[in-house]
Amino acid sequence: MVETFEIDSDAKLVECKDDKVAVDTTKVLVYIDHENKVVYLWRGKKASLFKKLMGTRVTAKLSNTYRDYRIRPITEGREPAAFRDLVGLAKK
C-alpha cells in the first residue's frame, strides 16, 4: 500500500486521492510505501524553495510516526529504479 501526499503552500500534507499521482516539476510529493517501509520525498526541479524546505521538515516529523521506515529524499531526474517502479515513471 502506498499513500501519496502533496506539500501545499501552507507547508501541510494534502492527501492525493488518485491511484496514480503524476509527478509534476512544480510539486513536492511524499510517498509512503508501507510494503517496503520507505518514505520518499520527491522534489520537482521547479518547485519553490519554500516547498522543498517544508517537505524536508514534514518528512522529518513523519520519521517520528514511522520509526522503522527509511526516509529517501529524491530530486527530479535522479529517481532510483524502485521509486520509478512505484510511481510508474518511464526509465530515462
Word description of this protein:
It is a single chain. The protein is an alpha+beta fold and 92 residues long. The protein has a single domain (2-87), classed as Severin (3-Layer(aba) Sandwich). It is built from two helices and five strands; from the N terminus they run E-E-E-E-H-E-H. The protein has helices at 49-65, 81-87, and strands at 2-7, 13-15, 28-33, 38-43, 70-75. Strands 2-1-3-4-5 form a five-stranded mixed sheet, covered by helices on one side. The radius of gyration is 12 Å and the shape is globular.
Which properties best describe this structure?
92 residues; alpha+beta; Severin; five-stranded mixed beta sheet; 2 helices; 5 strands; 26% helix
